[in-house]
Amino acid sequence: MTSTHAQDLPMAVDAYLSGLLAPADEALAAALADSEAAGLPAISVSAVNGKLLHLLARIQGARRILEIGTLGGYSTIWLARALPSDGQLITLEYSARHAEVARANLARAGLDKVVEVRVGAALDSLPRLADEGAVFDLVFIDADKVNNPHYLEWAVKLTRPGSVVVVDNVVRDGRVVDAQSTAPDVTGTRTALQLLADHPKLDATAIQTVGAKGYDGFALARVLD
Question: How far apart are CA 83 and CA 102, in angstroms?
Answer without folding.
Answer: 18
